[in-house]
Amino acid sequence: MKTTTSLIICLLTILSFTSAQTMQTLPYREIPSYPASYTAENAVARMIDGLGFRYYWATDGLRPEDLAYRPSKEARSSEETIDHILGLATILINSLKDQANVRSGEETSSLSFEVKRKRTLEILWEASELLKKKDAKLKKHKIIFQNGDNKTEFPFWNMINGPIADALWHVGQVVSFRRASGNPFNSKASVLTGKVRE
Description:
The chain is mostly helical.
């Protein structure tokens, strides 16, 4: 009996440690230090860092009832909004990797919330890092939509007023929805400094 109890305690400790490690490996708990120089690429990377920080805290600790919340029958639920944000992040990273956005039929709704959250944060981090490289040039990147033989292209300008601004808008909705479902945003997360007040 004593051995079984010790084994259970050991396993629970390992699981708890692994879970804590996983949570700590997600980017954007805090915003990284800002770049030394002002360039168009660094400015957009910083916008993405701000989006990542807001998304991290908007989605931190969401409960099933928060994810299911919708303000009206016609509105998206919080989880459907999170799906949309993942789609917008994917458009961003595809642009920076010079890849077309193709409707593949892959539904993000079949993924767990934790997977969607992690994937979104990692995509935003990668996008920011790509923009901080010395050879990064916004004018080289386009938004490309491919639908069969039809291809539509937009300059990176449209990324700023389109997917990036749209994602910020929707993160605000998640914050508002979670407040309405009784689970407010962590007030210690400062969007001005990008740090967490202790």
